[in-house]
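[09:14] KT: can someone run the structure on this one? pasting the chain below
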Amino acid sequence: MPAHRRRFPRILLVPVVVAVLAAGVWYWKGRGGGDAQKYRTAAVEQGDIRVAISSTGNLSALSTVDVGSEVSGKVTEVLVDYNDRVEKGQVIARIDPDTFQAQIEQGNAAIANARASLQTARASLRNAELDYSRKAALVDQKLIARGDLDQALAARDQARAQVAAAEAQIRQQTASAQNAHLNLARTVIRSPVNGVVLARSVEPGQTVAASLQAPVLFKIAEDLSQMEIVLAVDESDIGQVKPAQAVSFTVDAFPDRRFRGEVRQVRLSSTNTSNVITYPVVVSVDNADQALLPGMTANAEIEVSRRDNILKVPNAAMRFKPPVDDAAAEQQQSAQRGGGMSDDLPKIAATLKLDASQQAAFDGALARMRERIAARTAAPQQNGNAPNLFGRGPGGPQSGGGNRGTGNASGAMRQRMLERFNQQFGEFRATLRDDQRQAWDSAVNELVGARRAPVYVLADGKPKPVLVRVGASDGSSTEIIGELKAGDQVIVGVQVAEPGK
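[09:31] RB: done, structure tokens below
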């Protein structure tokens, strides 16, 4: 065989081997054997977080007056219509006054009759008094019997009673006549306030009956330049709502416009609708341009918290946990749990402007705390229990897999933590002035109550936990306070390799 034919197969064999090796490498990498686990990251951002509660309610005037009739009768005139502006005291309707005028005439006649009766009673009284005087003189002379004098005395007393009754009758008839005059005046319906007529429920010729309660003839809104919304806030959110909080809302009539308001009142009366408890929250609204109308449905958001110029991470970073094969990262997280508060305490102490003796007492208490934490961290942990802030073992506030930081502890656990903390720093606290002690207690209470959680950054291709304090969250981002800074990359998830790559 010629030499060039023997070399030809060898030349073809080289690219075949290279191709087989490349395919093997590709398959090996595709199976995950060539690269370490890959993660998706996001940057720590500096910005604002706004936490709001959503609710709905209806707009209404601050004061809406129902104008009714105190007397019954036929309506003869209606002088206003819907949307008319009225002034206080303006006549807006009239009821037929004939019945009440007749009652006034009847009352006047009754008064005149009572006065005539009074004159008759007074005349009888004068005659009875004269008769009594004469008989008294005759009795003294023993010319008549004593019984005749007694009869004259009784007749005089009866005449005086008749005079008193006649005077009372006059007062009664006068009061009745005054009531008739009042009813006559009530046939003229006047506006009690300056405002706008929202509703009119009467027409001329209609008869109104006010026997049991006054029928409502008009609804008048006192001032539409200031309005209010009564929002129904769920019981799970009502604890966050306070007076003077900002409110923004929209109405269907102006979908592209956002209106502003302010929480004026959180009412204590609850409403139970299908076992759902809500509380009314009154929001005051400035309606100077009269764009908003009573009855409009408002879709409102109550701004319960706002944090400006803070560090925040995506909520996915707070939910991320290392895969099972990254147990070392979880152990490192456990080792860091105890040191979170001890790193924040010097910052609190720096704000108190301590003198030398106070600083020495603080440094000693802090050093003892860190020694206990270090000792617990170095000691073997049973059942996965991690050392906590106070170096306590199983059963302490930090024990158990469900609590991922001091802030996740229950109220009772936090209380125990605070008591233990006060014991450890009791000597230092005793050296503080009253104003320093108050500032220290407030800061410590906030620190103990703060929620702590780890976020993960990449270190040598592996997740490394960084313990941070967790602040407000708007549902997509969460405020963090800790060692991270803007621009740092935090892990938000595991990158899934696409098929064929």
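[09:33] KT: thanks! Residues 311-494 form one domain.
[09:34] RB: yep, looked fine to me
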